[in-house]
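Researcher: Dear colleague, please comment on this protein.
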Amino acid sequence: MSTVEIVELTKSYGGTLALSPTSFRVEEGEFFSLLGPSGCGKTTTLRMIAGFVAPTGGAVVIGGEDLTFLPPERRGIGIVFQNYAIFPHMNVFDNIAFGLLMRKVPKPEIAKRVMEALDQVGLSGYHARFQRELSGGEQQRVALARVLITEPRILLLDEPLSALDKKLREEMKYWIKELQRNLKITTIYVTHDQGEALTMSDRIAVMNKGSVAQIGTPDDIYERPASRFVTEFIGESNILDVVVQSVDGGLCKVSIGDKVALARSRLGLAVGDVAALVVRPEQVLLGEDAAQSANPLSGVVLDHTYQGSFIRYRVDVGGHKLVAEVANRSDQSIIADGTKVAVAWQAEGASLTTN
């Protein structure tokens, strides 16, 4: 295992800045995701780590060594691409063995290691199959086995689930995370899918327009977004423009029009500051639950949809449209459209961020 340290890494194409000076550190055995929309710089960053793209400035340090301009084949890195890059004219055995053949490993050793790799990725008995005989998930496992058999110190994954259908993506993200945890291999994962990043990662770097907007654990990113962009990109949120009325320890009292509510404070906020109040739909309380909380607001149910385990309501609160996801409980009836309701949230369930 090795650490990965990115030090003020930049990339320009002509006069276009693809990556602003960027720094972060990935610890040994960590699953670290680069998450962001298309064109944010995440794949460019991954390719500079791999050595396929030369940076304009900065350094890539792996295991304490500056490898910024070392060729890809000398970095000890394994990479799995979005399209898997499996050779269609080779069977599974030869695909997985390819890297070892290039290293001139003795054939008996290759056979032993290929069979071990197939067992490791759950494909024992698949050695004679060709690409056309494999599902998308099986092709992905072959691609992973081909990389892992070379015993890389770093694993890079570039949107490996994007070509799979939804059901298979759900299955494979847990499988990849379990495999990574068992192997304890330092992994950097590129994705635009928030669900993948939140489910699989130890930490996430959210990227936007060629720079890192926030780095944190999944719960940091989801519960305590550092900016409006992160808030809107990670999951669904209710975002209200508010003015800070008072700051008391870890809580702020804020005004929403002529109403007052509480939220977790943010470092640096002062009385009179304009901020964005973020409340996730699952944190919004309605009806009796809201009436029993501190500082309940009042609203009118605009409409509702049945979602199985929860009911999704849209509520008008003084001209603000809030979405609430309320657990579907047998002891509660559905609130009818047009009903006036109390609306609230626990202060710890709301956060303040910058605009």
